[in-house]
Amino acid sequence: MLPGRPGRPDVLTFGETMVALRGSGPLKLGGTMNVSVAGAESNVAIGLARLGHEVRWAGAVGDDEAGQLVLRTLRAEGVEVSGATADPGAPTGLLLFEPRLPEVTRVHYYRAGSAGSRLTPEVIQRAFAAAPPRVLHLTGITPALSPTARSAAGRALQLAREHGTLVCLDVNFRARLWTAEEAAEVLREWLPAVDVLIASDDELPLCLPGGGGGRDGGQGREGSPGGGEGSQGAEGAEGAEVQEGPMAAGARAWGDAVPLPSEEGAGAPAARVATQAGLLLDQGIGEVVVKLGAAGATAFTDSGALHRPATPVRAVDAVGAGDAFVAGYLSALLDGEGLAGRLERAVTTGAFAVASPGDWEGAPTRSELGMLGAPPGTVVR
Question: What's residue 330's pLDDT?
Fold first, then answer.
């Protein structure tokens, strides 16, 4: 699907990356905070770079110290940022993490009017002119930031079509940025240009043709399963059993391809998801990958469906698990792996994220991918 092309980077992604401050408890009580950076697209970029891929990030930051931290961090992680811009008229966005319960974190955004929200189509035009990528990775966060950012994403889709670039879209719905109706209007307009669609099960209705505009089973929360920065996705969460997950009737094991179910019995959650994925495949999307949190993930193609349970790990921090999942999936796709291999790597990188604090800090290198299979107490020398 993705032959190597000399001079073309593996992946181009863009969006807003913010300075992230992580407290140890309620913010109103004060205390110390750890400083890092966070952004769904840059999380994916770092995850891919650690796996050995050539990745470019073309976002916008403020011409300030916070923006320098963002660019410095991405460069240090091997992400190419020459296409990024520093906006002297707007600040770098800010993100505050507030742990409230062992498995519940509140997120506070300060991104209105930020440099990242002022991203323009010209930035994307220059990025493609420099070197068209093999894969364009988009999220549903960027078009929610502003009309100009939405135009930039739309221009990226046009350029991807012109240059034969595969398009991966991670829905990543953020209720604090736009409504479900607004998101659905944009996402459905984009679908004809999308090759790989990645979404949590409650985000699928946003993409469906016709009238199903609301989210199925969700409340538009920031913590949608498998989300990016500021979400509480839990691929590979503690206690996830390695067993056959929700599949259509007749599935024999996670590695078996099975046909999409008929409409009969579509009231069951697994059948409903399969039916929704089938509708999206009918729109011309090549692959629909559904993140199911601690239950793993299922990929749907015209040939059938394939499920992979989550990898069991001791959960430390679920933030960024969905972005790690996407990085693993795209990495295996770029390597020419089949559907089973793509899901395998995706749940593995998602499990690494859950087992480590931070948005991207726990992303594995290629040599570390096999570590999750080591017995407890293993010391790697």
Answer: 98
Nearest partner of 216 among 118, 306, 113, 290, judged by Cα = 290
The gap from C-alpha 347 to its chain's centroid, in whole angstroms, comes to 13
pTM of the predicted model as reported, rounded to 2 decimal places:
0.84
* CA gap 173, 87 in Å, rounded: 26
Q: What is the mean pLDDT of the chain?
A: 83
- What is the C-alpha to C-alpha distance for residues 238 and 340, in angstroms, rounded to an integer? 23
Which H, E and C letters describe the chain, residue by residue? CCCCCCCCCCEEECCCCEEEEEECCCHHHCCCEEEEEECHHHHHHHHHHHCCCCEEECCEEECCHHHHHHHHHHHHCCCECCCCEEECCCCCCEEEEEEEECCEEEEEEECCCCCHHHCCHHHHHHHHHHCCCCEEEEECCHHHHCHHHHHHHHHHHHHHHHHCCEEEEECCCCCCCCCHHHHHHHHHHHHHHCCEEEEECCCHHHCCCCCCCCCCCCCCCCCCCCCCCCCCCCCCCCCCCCCCCCCCCCCCCCCCCECCCCCCCCCCHHHHHHHHHHHHHHCCCCEEEEECHHHCEEEEECCEEEEECCCCCCCCCCCCHHHHHHHHHHHHHHCCCCHHHHHHHHHHHHHHHHCCCCCCCCCCCHHHHHHHHCCCCCCCC
- Does residue 187 have a pLDDT over 60? yes
d(CA 38, CA 358): 9
Nearest one of 244, 274, 250 to 262, comparing CA atoms? 274
| Identified catalytic residue from 216, 323, 335, 359 | 323
Respond yes or no: is residue 323 known to be catalytic.
Answer: yes
* Torsion sign across C-alpha atoms 175, 178, 180, 184: negative
| pLDDT, tens digit, 9 for 90 and up, residues 52-110 | 999 999 999 999 999 999 999 999 999 999 999 999 999 999 999 888 887 778 889 99
Q: What is the dihedral of CA 176, 179, 185, 191, to 10 degrees?
A: 40
The three-point CA angle 131-135-136 to 5° equals 85
